[in-house]
Specification:
Chain lengths: 256, 486
């Protein structure tokens, strides 16, 4: 096997840019400019807004009655610089979900744009129906799913305080990488309350075509919720059943 | 106690040490977010002037927060060695650091342990970028695990061969590619996508298989939570380095799911494990820590202390556990803490200097995310500045693109290029290996082919067998198709 054959082997197993060659110690021109192009695309994804009324999320919004509320961040620029605002619902949003969402359910799903609305548009249409069907089959009461613009992970605490669901699942766009702007995370929390941190949450990251596929993601989310229901806890102490161990976000943290 | 300074006739008053420390910082979006930053450029300079007149003894005598991290810092403070510098002001201490002869005094007298994190942070606040580079350069600390880091003329590289689903073959292929660029001497260190004991154990076994079969003089690490790594160790996986993210306050460490006791217990467990693997280690530095400005604020656990000072305290935590390497992941955290290229570059130089003054084997993950005002040119710039500053190690990520964490760091190409530009080498044991294998000739990378690729591929297959004993050699993985993002 020579280096070229080694390079061929790569393409089946990793999206990493390996065996790309070198000119001296520099990239070839095509490689250098491809990196620049991918960075440009990622920068554009960060500034895009979530849309429910048109595009790939519109049929889903229709089917599940999805609506969007805002975090306490006024706009995209403030969202990037003020994470505290992205972690709180606006006062209008608090009133809206209080009025429109059933309280005290077994499962509340929330959709957040996070740092990539493109990831939500790419993953939620496939994943959400599977997730809600599986929760329904488990016999759980399910809340009214809604979306949050300019959303950070800490929004789960507000949702927990207002609606008192047992389990909250937040589907949120991860910070775009160069390889993809379509990667989504699912954060899970048991009875989230003010001052809960990442140590109280469980995370499934890298939900995208070259990462975790939708059926696999859903079965793992459901298994985690079952474990949360059995132990009455989420976060660092919770073991992900069957295939994996404790799940936390300490070493990943790519979502806002 | 209040602090005062006058700038061009305008008088500024700072209520306490915490305020003067925060306002003396160079501009950082995180300090502004915490509402503790200077309100104007004049106020910033006034705070620097006031801080320059504060004696070191006053900083030690006035802890900024009462918590377990402060207790640890004070308990490990060399109060005898401190007598030699206690009466200095911060301004005088800056001049002492930059004067000829300081590196010798620092090394001979073990002065690092007399410097507290808060002192190191304070002096960094009144230093220019060049001061931070000039001051850090001669302060070197050698550490040993399976090889030796931190020697003169050495720039280490941690290969970071992450994979979006922790596919061991994909991870090992990325690591092998790094070897062709002379990377991997600091460690082969994988951030797992999933926190899983079995997954962590499989990656550890695969990495160990690779270095066993290639006789690579380096160490491996899987950067799962410390408790996950220890569970993998209990399950029989080989752990060279025990990783943990650490922060500068007790409360922030709690948000990471750790305590100081847990760090001590973990270190003891790994040292005991190493004693069962006699002959594989050349030293007893077994911990690898990562830090980064803004982490305590992001956990709302900063106690209104500025992010440079909290970061220095995280270095103080790391120091107490005799680390092999410490890494400030400077540009990972995002624009709410470090807004742009200018702030990332400054923070990278500060963290490196502070770590070095405290005696740490300090490296920097020179990096940026896609939601911050920085780009690969920022990375080039900071990497060159840190090479000039004598940085202990950096990351090596394939073509800079971390396909799991979704951010850009320094690449295998960058590391090889900077080593060439500055005449720096990998760790001595690793240089010998690279030379024997024909990857390095007269300190320059070769164009490998033929027999070498066969050797590397052989090591890869053997490692895969070790990671997942049931896997057949050469089996392809039909679940993914070529193309896509390549």
């Amino acid at each position: 096997m020579d280096v070229t054959q080694l390079a061929r082997r790569v393409r089946a197993v990793t999206p990493a840019r390996i065996f790309v060659g070198r000119i001296g110690t520099s990239y070839g021109t095509a490689q250098l400019l491809a990196l620049r192009a991918d960075h440009a695309a990622a920068r554009d994804a960060v500034t895009a807004n979530l849309t429910l009324t048109s595009g790939p999320l519109a049929p889903l919004a229709e089917r599940y009655g999805l609506f969007a509320v805002d975090s306490a961040a006024d706009d995209r620029t403030q969202y990037l610089r003020r994470p505290d605002r992205g972690r709180r619902l606006s006062s209008i949003a608090r009133d809206t979900i209080t009025a429109r969402c059933p309280h005290d359910t077994d499962l509340q799903v929330v959709i957040g744009d996070g740092l990539s609305a493109a990831a939500i548009e790419a993953q939620v249409p496939g994943l959400l129906p599977l997730l809600l069907d599986a929760a329904d089959q488990a016999g759980w009461s399910i809340g009214q799913t809604f979306a949050v613009n300019h959303c950070r992970v800490g929004i789960m605490n507000d949702v927990g305080e207002i609606l008192h669901p047992k389990a909250v699942v937040l589907l949120i766009g991860e910070r775009p990488g160069l390889a993809t702007a379509q990667s989504m995370s699912a954060y899970l929390a048991w009875r989230p309350r003010a001052h809960h941190t990442d140590a109280d949450r469980n995370l499934l990251s890298n939900i995208h075509p070259r990462g975790i596929a939708h059926p696999d993601a859903v079965s793992r989310i459901i298994a985690l919720i079952r474990a949360m229901r059995a132990t009455g806890a989420s976060g660092i102490t919770l073991k992900e059943p069957d295939r994996r161990g404790p799940l936390d976000s300490d070493s990943v943290g790519t979502a806002p | 106690m209040a602090y005062r300074a006058t700038v061009r006739g305008e008088r500024f008053v700072f209520a306490d040490l915490r305020e003067v420390m925060a306002k003396a910082n160079e501009e950082k979006s995180g300090d502004q977010l915490a509402e503790i930053a200077a309100g104007s450029a004049r106020e910033r300079v006034a705070a620097k002037l006031a801080l320059a007149d504060v004696p070191l003894s006053e900083i030690v005598a006035n802890p900024l927060v009462d918590d377990a991290v402060t207790d640890l810092i004070l308990a490990s403070h060399d109060t005898v060695g401190f007598q030699a510098i206690a009466a200095c002001t911060i301004g005088e201490f800056r001049e002492m650091i930059l004067a000829p002869g300081f590196p010798e005094t620092w090394a001979a007298g073990g002065l690092a342990r007399a410097v507290t994190p808060e002192i190191a942070a304070a002096v960094a606040k009144i230093m220019s970028d060049r001061d931070l580079i000039t001051g850090a350069k001669p302060l070197r600390t050698a550490t040993r695990c399976r090889n030796t880091m931190g020697g003169p003329g050495v720039l280490g590289v941690r290969t970071q061969p992450n994979h979006p689903t922790d596919d061991v073959e994909g991870i090992l292929l990325s690591a092998v590619d790094g070897l062709l660029y002379g990377c991997g001497d600091a460690m082969i260190g994988v951030n797992p996508a999933a926190e899983s004991v079995t997954g962590t154990a499989a990656i550890l076994r695969g990495l160990a298989g690779l270095i066993d079969h290639l006789h690579l003089p380096t160490q491996t690490c899987v950067l799962a939570h410390l408790t996950t790594q220890l569970a993998a160790l209990d399950a029989g996986a080989p752990v060279d380095l025990l990783f943990q993210s650490v922060a500068g306050t007790e409360e922030a460490n709690r948000s990471f799911g750790i305590s100081l006791d847990l760090l001590a217990e973990g270190r003891e467990a790994v040292l005991a494990h190493h004693r069962t693997r006699a002959g594989q280690f050349v030293g007893e530095q077994v911990m690898y820590f990562e830090t980064g400005q803004g982490s305590a604020l992001s956990a709302d656990a900063h106690h209104s202390i500025d992010q440079l000072t909290v970061e220095a305290r995280a270095h103080g935590v790391a120091r107490a556990y005799d680390p092999f390497l410490v890494n400030s992941v400077v540009g990972f955290i995002g624009p709410e803490y470090l807004a742009d290229a200018r702030q990332i570059i400054r923070a990278g130089l500060e963290d490196h200097f502070v770590g070095k003054l405290l005696g740490l084997p300090m490296g920097i993950d020179v990096c940026y995310t896609n939601h911050v005002e920085a780009d690969q040119n920022t990375n080039d710039d900071l990497f060159i500045l840190l090479a000039a500053a004598g940085c202990t190690f950096v990351m090596g990520v394939p073509a800079s693109d971390d396909v799991m964490l979704g951010y850009q760091s320094t690449s295998y190409h960058d590391a090889a290029g900077i080593r060439e530009l500055f005449g720096l080498s990998p760790a001595p044991e690793f240089t010998t290996w690279l030379t024997e294998k024909g990857l390095l000739r007269d300190g320059r990378l070769t164009d490998p082919a033929g027999q070498l690729a066969a050797t590397l591929a052989g090591g890869l297959d053997a490692a895969l067998l070790q990671a997942t004993p049931s896997a057949a050699i050469g089996t392809h993985h039909p679940r993914r198709q070529p193309g896509g993002a390549m």
